[in-house]
Amino acid sequence: MSHQALLGRIHSAQARVGVIGLGYVGLPLVREFCRAGFSVIGFDVDATKVESLLAGRSYIRHIPDGLVGDLVGSGRFRPTADYNRIPECDAVLICVPTPLTPQREPDISYVQATAESIGRQLRRGQLIVLESTTYPGTTDEVVRPILERASGLAAGADYYLAYSPEREDPGNRDFSTGTIPKVVGGHDGPSGELAAALYGKVVPRVVSVSTTRVAESAKILENMFRAVNIALVNELKVLFTEMGIDVWEVIEAAATKPFGFMPFYPGPGLGGHCIPIDPFYLTWKAREFEQSTRFIELAGEINSSMPRWVVQRVAEALNERGRALKGAKVLVLGIAYKPNVDDDRESPSLHIIDLLKGHGAEVSYNDPYIPRLRRSRRHDLGLSSVQLTDEALADQDCVLVATDHGAYDWDRIVAGARLVVDTRNATRRVTEGRERIVKA
Fold first, then answer.
1. CA 248 from centre of chain
2. Local confidence band at 71 (pLDDT 50, 70, 90 cut-offs)
3. CA 340 to CA 171: how far, in whole Å?
4. Interior/surface letters 48-74, b for 16+ CB within 10 angstroms, e for the rest
5. C-alpha to C-alpha distance for 16 and 67, rounded to whole angstroms
6. Interior CA angle at 303 toward 292 and 320, to 5°?
7. How confident is the model at residue 401, as a pLDDT?
8. Comparing C-alpha atoms, which of 263, 242, 26 is closest to residue 130?
9. Is the pLDDT of residue 157 over 90?
10. What integer best gives the mean pLDDT of the chain?
């Protein structure tokens, strides 16, 4: 298919879109393209996800079952695990994970495997777009060679290639996939034009940049900005705690300045699919150019150290009450990496539980959105959420607030617990029993 022919199919919403990876990024994309009138094939290697979607069931909290049922029932959305259907798509969007190895190096095996699958099926005139967060150069240095070796086709001449970073923020009520501007960088001019036209059908604004590397770097910068500033307030939290100063009160006071300041808040560590990972992607790539990224690496070290500092604060608080951490009953409130979502990817809560158990504590957890802990690449804790009854609260030596879900009644929790260690300033409005609260 020629460039102009594909452009025409995109403008008329006749192009068929393929989305590979039906998780927190891919499924919202499916929703937006279906809403815009496109026919979408969703691919995932996890057969249970495909079966769930075909039955009209969602596994992501902010995407309701009814919506999935309507999309599948209308015929606009067809979930499948059959990658042989890739040639049916005019555009294929790659939304697969890009985690870290245990050595904190980029693991792009999912991207590579997906590129291999596409390459074996790639046909002339298709548009391939990588959305997965990664280091600058991945699209051109990793994805393109695999596609071309497997297919015998050349980017720009036979097929089109672009990068457009996902900007999904699960649980954000103010911004969703369909309202966030999209950055697009093409392998060449026609590739960039096609990708911009495609996303222009579902987002309010497309920001076209000169190359795929610029688009990849923009995503890294967005998340690095947050990681560095969170590291700053986390470091200040440790310092101000030693000085007897409430860091949250300091931040709120500073935030009254109407210019030159943006508030960031400390926590028990970083979670999610981007911010804890991106610093290590860029520092790894920087070594190829014999460059050091000391500032970025320091931010990563500070944020990674927070779970250990939290456990230290728990141990100190228990010790002040004549109780050792070993053998103590600790209830962790919140497994999700942020409030009011069911997303536990890279959650610091998992690391904290591991550390607490390593010190001999008896650990349980409650999370209204995560009924059981799934086995992950780094954790296999085998726990299920316990009921948050008055009896359960009273039975704990310490209640550790790791995620400030809106469903929690903080007055009741503080009233029922012997000790509350609060890593999120969730109990700031509690007036009774504040002597039982320790901030961390």
1. 25
2. very high
3. 7
4. ebbebbeeeebbbebbeeebbeebbee
5. 20
6. 140
7. 98
8. 26
9. yes
10. 94
Distance, in Å, from the CA atom of 222 to the CA atom of 279, rounded to the nearest integer, reads 11
Catalytic residue among 34, 95, 274, 398: 274
Instruction: State yes or no: is 274 an active-site residue.
Output: yes
Instruction: Look at residue 276 in the predicted model and tell me its pLDDT.
Output: 75
Say which residues have a Cβ less than 8 Å from residue 38's Cβ, sequence separation at least 6: 13, 15, 16, 17, 76, 201
Collect all residues with Cβ–Cβ distance below 8 Å to 221 and sequence separation of at least 6.
none
Ranges in the chain annotated CATH 3.40.50.720: 3-210, 226-439
Superfamily in which the 3-210 domain is placed by CATH: NAD(P)-binding Rossmann-like Domain (3.40.50.720)
Helix (H, G, I), strand (E, B) or coil at 194: helix
Residue 232, judged by CB atoms within 10 A of its CB (0-12, 13-18, 19+), counts as middle
DSSP string, 91-113: EEEE-----B-TTS-B--HHHHH
Q: Rg (Cα) of the chain, in Å, rounded?
A: 24
Is 185 in contact with 216 (CB distance < 8 Å)? yes
Q: How many helices (H) and strands (E) does the chain have?
A: 15, 13
37 close to 60: Cβ distance less than 8 angstroms: no
Torsion angles phi and psi, residue 419, rounded to 5: -150, 135
Q: Which of 318, 317, 300 is nearest to 440 (CA)?
A: 317
At residue 53, φ and ψ (nearest 5 deg) are: -65, -40
CATH 3.40.50.1100 correct for 226-439: no
pLDDT tens-digit readout, 85-124: 999 999 999 999 998 887 778 899 999 999 999 999 999 9
SS3 398: strand
How far CA 259 is from CA of 231, 255, 262, in Å, comes to 21, 9, 8
Q: Which runs of E-coded beta strand occur in 149-300?
A: 160-163, 182-186, 206-209
CB 272 within 8 A of CB 403: no
Residue 169 buriedness (CB in 10 A; 0-12 / 13-18 / 19+): middle
Distance linking the first and last C-alpha atoms of the chain: 59
